[in-house]
Amino acid sequence: HDDGGTIRRIVQSGRSTWFCPKCQR
Predict the structure, then answer these.
(1) How confident is the model at residue 15 (pLDDT cuts 50, 70, 90)?
(2) Distance CA 22, CA 25 (A)
C-alpha cells in the first residue's frame, strides 16, 4: 500500500483484512 494513509488490520466474519481509511480499500 502506497497512498501514505494509515493501514488498519480488521478482523471480521472470521477472517482478517487490511483496510486503509484514506482510500477506502
Answers:
(1) confident
(2) 8
At 8, the amino acid letter reads R
CA-based end-to-end distance of the chain: 10
At 12, which amino acid appears? Q
pTM for the whole structure:
0.23
Contact partners, residue 14, CB within 8 Å, separation at least 6 = none
Cell numbers standing for residue 4: 501514505
* pLDDT at 17 > cutoff 80: no
With the C-alpha atoms ordered 4, 9, 13, 15, is the resulting torsion angle positive or negative?
A: positive
